[in-house]
Amino acid sequence: MSGSILGKYFQVSTWGESHGKGIGVVVDGCPAGLPLSEEILQKYLDRRKPGQTRYSTPRKEADEVEILSGIFEGKTTGTPISMVVYNTSQRSKDYSEIAQYYRPGHADYTFDQKYGFRDYRGGGRSSGRETISRVAAGAIAEELLKELGVEVFAYTKEIGGISMDEKRALKENIGKSPLYMPDLEASEQAEILLESKMKQQDSAGGIIECVVRGLPAGVGEPVFEKLDANLAKAVMSIGAVKGVEIGDGFAAAKAFGSDNNDAFIKKQDGGIGKLTNHAGGILGGISDGSDIVLRAAVKPTPSIARGQKTVNCQGREIEIQIRGRHDPVIVPRAVVVVETMVAITVLDMLFASMTSNLNGIKKFFAK
Amino acid sequence: MSGSILGKYFQVSTWGESHGKGIGVVVDGCPAGLPLSEEILQKYLDRRKPGQTRYSTPRKEADEVEILSGIFEGKTTGTPISMVVYNTSQRSKDYSEIAQYYRPGHADYTFDQKYGFRDYRGGGRSSGRETISRVAAGAIAEELLKELGVEVFAYTKEIGGISMDEKRALKENIGKSPLYMPDLEASEQAEILLESKMKQQDSAGGIIECVVRGLPAGVGEPVFEKLDANLAKAVMSIGAVKGVEIGDGFAAAKAFGSDNNDAFIKKQDGGIGKLTNHAGGILGGISDGSDIVLRAAVKPTPSIARGQKTVNCQGREIEIQIRGRHDPVIVPRAVVVVETMVAITVLDMLFASMTSNLNGIKKFFAK
Amino acid sequence: MSGSILGKYFQVSTWGESHGKGIGVVVDGCPAGLPLSEEILQKYLDRRKPGQTRYSTPRKEADEVEILSGIFEGKTTGTPISMVVYNTSQRSKDYSEIAQYYRPGHADYTFDQKYGFRDYRGGGRSSGRETISRVAAGAIAEELLKELGVEVFAYTKEIGGISMDEKRALKENIGKSPLYMPDLEASEQAEILLESKMKQQDSAGGIIECVVRGLPAGVGEPVFEKLDANLAKAVMSIGAVKGVEIGDGFAAAKAFGSDNNDAFIKKQDGGIGKLTNHAGGILGGISDGSDIVLRAAVKPTPSIARGQKTVNCQGREIEIQIRGRHDPVIVPRAVVVVETMVAITVLDMLFASMTSNLNGIKKFFAK
Amino acid sequence: MSGSILGKYFQVSTWGESHGKGIGVVVDGCPAGLPLSEEILQKYLDRRKPGQTRYSTPRKEADEVEILSGIFEGKTTGTPISMVVYNTSQRSKDYSEIAQYYRPGHADYTFDQKYGFRDYRGGGRSSGRETISRVAAGAIAEELLKELGVEVFAYTKEIGGISMDEKRALKENIGKSPLYMPDLEASEQAEILLESKMKQQDSAGGIIECVVRGLPAGVGEPVFEKLDANLAKAVMSIGAVKGVEIGDGFAAAKAFGSDNNDAFIKKQDGGIGKLTNHAGGILGGISDGSDIVLRAAVKPTPSIARGQKTVNCQGREIEIQIRGRHDPVIVPRAVVVVETMVAITVLDMLFASMTSNLNGIKKFFAK
Q1: What is the rounded average pLDDT for all residues in chain A?
Q2: Which of A31, A39, C252, D327 could staple C358 via S-S, CB 3.0–4.6 A?
Q3: Whole-structure pTM over 0.90, yes or no?
Q4: Chain centroid to CA D327: how far?
Q5: What is the C-alpha to C-alpha distance for residues D209 and D292, in angstroms, rounded to an integer?
Q6: CB contact (8 A) between residue B202 and residue A6
């Protein structure tokens, strides 16, 4: 099968392993005429690059993206855009130990069961470095959405149980927090927690929230290709994500209809809006013109320095200690991954919505 | 676009509106040789049929399924299986009122924005009756999985905040509870809550849990086509679902690595297992041989008898009172929908996994 | 797998066997707002209905189409359109003989090899009746294309080696010939040939030509999703088709560059055109604004009354005589099948072309 | 849309322009465990490399392939295989002239119409160099098929009207002819013709034949995903191909049923075979165990040195003379392209056939 290709109109095809020659992605279906350069892409990639703060792995990875095709005279040509980040700083360390056992919380065992063997160097294909491809492709989607008046942004909502306070959260604070948390007080508390977890050779998880603003109503298809269904897939496909919710999400399961329904109202500009947004901007799988709001639950980093029990490849129970430089929390670096995966999905469905009704198509083809 | 088709190998193509001639589905990609009949399918459909208990709409709907193709001498032929449930009991009531405004929590407004107009009779395509197609198709998937030793079952975990107690929950109780709740004490409490909500002309939501047992390790593709990603899409595509989580899900976001990692162990039969199952049976997007555990958050029924504020199609603010017979909670009837959507997804990915490694393929084609 | 679903944007999902309950199709992805009725569809279906002339099987088949979903107040709603033709006149004859052996030129043997058994009644899924689904779905595509100024028409070019003379061919003659041949002289000669073949208990094949007129330049994708590639697939997927060519086709293989290249010219309206059309309206997989011209080679009907050698299901060599009422030539009835398959393909790629460049997309979403 | 991705199970995603940084391809869905190296791939690529004989462009292109991912310890890992051929010898010549007009027989005009502008250097994305990706990906498919006992080979059947004589054709001669023609006498005659065409600054086309041997019966899906339908798409998607036929192809349109039907026979090994193979190994879209035989019509190279009429981008009629080093015939270099495209398609459908019946699936998953 082909598990590394996503999308129907804006198609993203990724490749690469942690310790192979590089990580890359081909974007097929990007319209012609979008201004694009390595500089534009690099800004997105730098947001997931390790070593930016003390709460991410101190590994130095340049992660410089190179565009190999699909651009001519500074603009996309409409043909596939191939991008690559060559692996440059992977230490040629000894992986013979890690090859012999199955790390808890990792895909070592399942890869062996599926394929018969695995590229065990640094996680191989299931390494977090795989998300480089997602961010590079999603950066293009996000740039395209901007051209169409749609903004996508994400931030850390919670780390290790420490949650931001909506009242203190400010969008402009996101970049000021080393954890990409828009509530700087909560960010500081989370930092303290992380320090303590690092000392305990442990790790934390958290919640990322993503907002899509400016998306017109009518995007998303009823039944299986609902906008929320595709968002859930895209975000759940990110390595450490274990849950996804839209709008009130799991809280809606505890609410009652009279509270959970969003009343439609007449907006000041005369258009139709909603008094509240429990639905997270999606009704019946279709965008309703309000902000799309989505949250992803990220599990704690499975690689911890503390001793752990597991089995080796022969099935014998052993105790291991994972060496190496690992993130005490991957949430902050995953913020841009969630954001770009959402952008890819929203763009794909925006394109899909162009053939929803005959009037729109007729106008498009009218000379 | 084509939002009503799901799957890559086992493809499900659905159609039908609440008040049209019927609701149907075509299953393409079902292997030849599976014993199948209308009786087998009907058992699944009866689990979502309304009017079974006082907590579902008293509408009488026979919902009898008819197979139109793909079966010969009691077995599937390998060609498309077309199934239909004709709409027989839809009251020919007056829909002129509902046609004029947008019901809160429904897809009326988004359909109009997307398509320019809508079939307003009883929700049209976005009616809950659409799930008949899912259950009919998923019943086939579930029967196929049984033949391969894989069991899928679902139940109500929580209603209106009243949650089952794991210690009291018994699988054999599921069918004994009118709410499909395996903890009969919690079920009774939830019934009391529902009675009170019905009196208040209000509605409740809840959480459905689904378990896949017996799935071999190695199913699911790394990167985008992760087993959990596809499960999230399938389940989130069900009308009222607002959140999906795998294993510990959102709780994992609050946990620390030392607790959340599942230690691998040597099982009594000599195989490899896990001491705990926080991961919900999926590592790196691939099944690990443990139970797959998934939860869906279901919002409260948006149709409530209580007065509500909204706008009409001209954008004028009005107050409405939705008449008709509506479910005070849809969770119990949605249990089989979640279960069958999970079955469709697991089967599709099981098929996908057949080409994971050359050894398996060679054996398959060896004479 | 799912061999009965075609298309990416305008998706067609077919089902049904020759002697089952009916033949049907679900169209998913038809935009909202197209006027559609059973009367409109029936006109297309009547063109493939048997028993219209003495050169088709004298079987009486009403082949009346019924629309089950997707239409509201005379227009498509944007949701799936389910259509069915119930089988009414299939004789309940004895198929026990045909079940025992493999008819030459038919799919009996390959079905048994693939599926382990087969629905042997009248060809089952591989019956020519399967094309009813194609015509019903393609009729919708053709109606949509008309709304966008694109015309598709097909006709018989050759039967049993008797070819039409381009100079004598008139579009308005197509309907006047019982063979749908626009050159009435050639049509008469072909009729004489068919009479003689019928006496000899033999059958003939022929060539169908299809033209797409009014398609704007720019439709079709470079590389794999070329317009001609998708046309070739769609037309080759019709039961008896053994070859497809575009423009000069196989004749181009014998031509030289200086003759085969079409010079671009300035048209009288100031636009760019071509002096000749050896390319058949497609350059680099993309429409160039000229007529798209395609030809399909149709093999002679394999069911002939004459004695034939074959083997039975046990592999013993036997001599058989196929009874029943068969078409001496299927070309005339296949004309509308080719035409509608071309329409489905062209429409799908027309939709695809809407996201080719950013300027077009921006205009579409501008308020 | 995404016109550069092909396949459902074995997915091929290509990128690159004639004069960009390189040409590449990602193969997703290759099973784990196939021995693979750059040396193996290079043998296939060398067959399409220019400059091998005087009948291809004298441009020197190293076309050395590099594998970037998906291989570990000499074997495929089951994850995406990324391959690239960097463009090294593209002359940095002046393309300002070619940018101003539309070459007859090329995609210049259609690209401009579709995308608004084009990368005009050497044909950009629609250059023949795009086929490098096809050959690299198809080489993997062909190697996989070999492991499963399936052989694919192709050769030149005809050039400029000079056709090989079946009686003189020997498979082992293919490599001995500079034109890959298995009849060395016809090859010599074709060479003489080409010499004369080169002097006349003209070009020739031809026919390529491809055979698939050893494919088990039962591969290919009825209805739309017929084996022949997918072969037609794959081969027609190659730049200069204008026609595709299976078995007797267009000749079948002139034949009669009594001749065209292939009688089934009992083979010496006791199995079922066919006396003749007019059908080209496919019945009802499904392989019948005989050789699959396919032919592709290749148009003459559109780039000829002779003066030609055309229009410039402003629509003014002009006369041009295309400079540069062009192939007088591309048929010989396209042989391996047809062969590998056939291999990709056959492999994809072989995988699809693994879920045709429940017995096979049960055996696969039995422990």
Answers
A1: 94
A2: A31
A3: yes
A4: 17
A5: 10
A6: no
